[in-house]
Amino acid sequence: TQLLEQSPQFLSIQEGENLTVYCNSSSVFSSLQWYRQEPGEGPVLLVTVVTGGEVKKLKRLTFQFGDARKDSSLHITAAQPGDTGLYLCAGRALYNFNKFYFGSGTKLNVKP
Amino acid sequence: DAGVIQSPRHEVTEMGQEVTLRCKPISGHDYLFWYRQTMMRGLELLIYFNNNVPIDDSGMPEDRFSAKMPNASFSTLKIQPSEPRDSAVYFCASSLGLVGEQFFGPGTRLTVL
């Protein structure tokens, strides 16, 4: 069982559609990060959210940190084929700041 | 600036052999992390160093795994003896500060036959 559970595990959509990916935990996190990983490469940081209820926007991507700091969501508007990849949430649990946990990942495929 | 460099990119070995993975972090970064990624378990933190000193190795799966950081620009992850279940992609990452952005290398894909 992973500390950070992501859903859905797989998502295949058409170009132009909207989608939301969820990252949930029963633990409180001091901060949460979202990464995107492309095949054959390492994860690349997209955003860090720190404050409960915080919303950050990165062009067509909107990230939200839950009020209780136990969950987060990533919303993509008008998805493009370039958004295809593995999306990972990650963070440091409040009870063990030294540990950095990654979520199970959501594999997104955007078809042209 | 060069990113995190890992070598080799691919490694195929036979069960029982020793495997050494190498990492060169970004210059000036004081934290170095080793991760393992598999389909079943996702991305797991194995060990991390601060200023070349191992801080938390609780993620290292067994005594067959060992990691060293002899200086600020080089780290190794060694598996001896290797087993088929060690097959995975191993990533090295570095950061400035514990909570600084982690920059990942391209990974080493290890296959143990």
Summarize the structure.
Helix content of chain A is 0%, strand content 55%. Chain A is built from no helices and eleven strands. The mean pLDDT of chain A is 93.
Question: Could you describe the 3D structure shown?
Answer:
The complex is a heterodimer of chains A (112) and B (113). Helix content of chain A is 0%, strand content 55%. Chain A is mostly beta strands and 112 residues long. In chain A, the strands form two sheets. In chain A, strands 2, 4, 5, 9, 10 and 11 form a six-stranded mixed beta sheet that branches. In chain A, strands 1-3-8-7-6 form a five-stranded antiparallel beta sheet, with no helix packed on it. In chain A, a hairpin with a 2-residue loop joins strand 6 (55-58) and strand 7 (61-65). Chain A is globular and about 45 Å long. Chain B is globular, with a radius of gyration of 13 Å. Chain B has strands spanning 5-7, 10-13, 19-24, 31-38, 42-50, 53-56, 65-71, 74-79, 88-95, 103-104, 108-112. In chain B, the strands form two sheets. In chain B, strands 2, 4, 5, 6, 9, 10 and 11 form a seven-stranded mixed beta sheet that branches. A four-stranded antiparallel beta sheet of chain B has the order 1-3-8-7, with no helix packed on it. In chain B, strand 5 and strand 6 (53-56) form a beta hairpin. Chain B contains no helices and eleven strands. By secondary structure, chain B is mainly β. Classes of the chains: A mainly beta (112), B mainly beta (113). Chain A binds chain B through residues 2, 31, 40-45, 48, 88, 90, 92, 98-105, and chain B through 4, 33, 35, 42-45, 48, 55-56, 91, 93, 98-99, 101-102, 104-107.
